[in-house]
Amino acid sequence: MRVQFIGVGEAFDERYPNTSVLVCLDDSQDSGHVLLDCGFTAAAAYYAHCSVGADLNAVWISHFHGDHFLGLPLLLLRFWEEGRTKPLLVVGQPGIEEKVWSALELAYPGFRPRLQYPVHCREAVAGKTLEFLGALWSFAANEHSVVTPCLAVRLDCRGKSVFYSGDGQPTPATAGLAANVDLLVHEAYGLEPDTPGHGGVPGCLDLARNVGARSLALVHVNRRVRRENAGVIRNMLADGFGAHGFLPEPGDGIVLGHGRANA
User: Fold this and answer.
1) Domain, as residue range, for 127
2) Is the pTM of this model over 0.90?
């Protein structure tokens, strides 16, 4: 399993694209590719930092905030422009199908009938699982927004696993979901242990150690915090995870295998 960071930024970051993560599920040539979140600036970054292009198999949407969702219309249109014909799966919370088509119609009116490829939507529910592309998809609710709740997702494939938080503080449910995961990718908005509605660097480190994660990558860091304290965060990761704690840059990749992650 290979994980590539398309974007690592928060909603307002002018330097880093919105957090978005590409997962290559296995090492075979025909491996499935899953994009985790696709915000305002993530669709363009997707084409800047990966070679999968229109061969992407699926998109996961953690929640319906714009910096995690509103790049999807551009991605759909780019696939159309490239002549894509194979189906695309979009997975998200109840209402995902209506959200996808409403967003496309708002961004590019009248384009849905012109898409030359099927777009299938499947709803994800906390505590339930799905199987797709040879992987088991599992979900748990974290603590982010009452109005716009967020689900964390875990992908397990051929003995390797990755957890992606979306936005929000860890909960007992997400801690259970992340147990013994190979790579825990978590939003860490600030340096405070407790940031309402968001993860914090100290809390994410505690979570990763408590659940036995083999490696940890922090994303969605507040732009000012990252600009002023990136070195501090990297030192905290080094103290907690050694060579397996990451503050990734856009385009960075991590290969999972044999119980460890290698950049």
Assistant:
1) 2-249
2) yes
